[in-house]
Amino acid sequence: MSPTALAYVGDAVYELFIRCHYLTPPNRIRTHHQRVVAEVKAETQAAYLNIWEPLLQSIELDIVRRGRNTASGKPKRVSIDIYRRATGFEALVGYLYLTNHGRLTELFALLPLKQH
Question: Which residue of the set 7, 11, 35, 92 is catalytic?
Fold first, then answer.
């Protein structure tokens, strides 16, 4: 699968993970949405990749590199470096979702998500 396709899947998987994380305790949808938006933005994804990188296996680092290198275009809101790192993060999430749910769960558990 192409790095772009992996990032596409990873974007959806990561957002669903974050939505589920912030769904409890019950709250207004607007409040849930604001929390989710803060977590799924490129800056946060790039920061989370910094946490994961020292722990990644060589194949995972390769997926991140390939995802990062496939990011093209000029992002509107962030630097190209942050945009590329976020795309690498999403590609890894997509890859692990498709190949190794246990490893993905292990890495998600390391994210310093804000408490409910």
Answer: 11
